[in-house]
Design brief:
With about 210 residues, the chain is mainly alpha-helical. It is about 70% helix and about 5% strand. The chain is built from nine helices and two strands. The chain is elongated. Component of the exocyst complex.
Length: about 210
């Protein structure tokens, strides 16, 4: 992808407009194919999280290059640029959902409260299982994502901020509500593996390359 943009000077871009458009379309073809595969697959079985990373990497690179070159932006046009930006945002949203929905779902209150003739409150056994599920899923996502590459520093930072804005507040709230129930039971350290501070420093960081 980068070779396409670096192989011509800004002066020659206008002279070779047709060629540039053709080569840009070729470079983006794989991205658009993957995007169509994702949007046309209601079950999501064809669109993996790595596909979302692939789309974001490539579309983000194209958009930044076009925005930084007035000549190239004139050739591509604002309409197509907006379409690319929409594709990027769609992929970013899908990435977050595919990656973190199950983790965030483990931090819900549903299924934790019990009521009966003799007692009501929080089910400690259900709560322990919920913390175990969170720990397992978080560690699995961390393990997998730590091997993925996002070369662009701005994109990496945007993904990191997005993760922090969703995961950290949800975990802080859940921990604040239920920590006491676990600490009053047996072997609390088996379930309370992460403080909020631990989670912030342990949260997955996508590799530069």
């Amino acid at each position: 992808m980068e070779e396409i943009f670096n192989s011509e000077s800004s002066e020659s871009i206008l002279v070779q407009a047709t060629e540039i458009q053709s080569r840009l379309a070729e470079a983006g073809r794989g991205t658009l194919v993957e995007f169509e595969k994702c949007t046309n697959d209601p079950k999501g079985s064809l669109c993996t999280t790595k596909t979302h990373i692939f789309i974001m990497n490539n579309v983000h690179y194209i958009v930044q290059k076009v925005k930084s070159s007035p000549e190239l932006r004139e050739i591509i046009g604002d309409l197509y640029l907006r379409r690319l930006t929409g594709i990027f945002r769609h992929a970013a949203t899908k990435y977050q959902r595919a990656t973190w929905v199950r983790v965030l779902n483990s931090l819900r209150d549903e299924g934790l409260h019990v009521s009966g003739s003799f007692s009501s409150g929080v089910s400690k056994s259900a709560l322990r299982e919920r913390f175990k599920a969170f720990n397992t899923m978080f560690e699995e996502v961390h393990r997998v994502q730590s091997t993925w590459s996002v070369p662009d520093a701005q994109l990496r930072e945007e993904l990191r901020i997005s993760l922090s804005e969703h995961l950290i507040p949800a975990y802080r709230s859940f921990l604040g509500r239920f920590r006491g129930h676990i600490e009053s039971g047996r072997h609390p350290k088996n379930y309370l593996k992460y403080s909020v501070e631990n989670l912030e420093t342990t949260a997955p960081h996508l590799r530069r390359s």
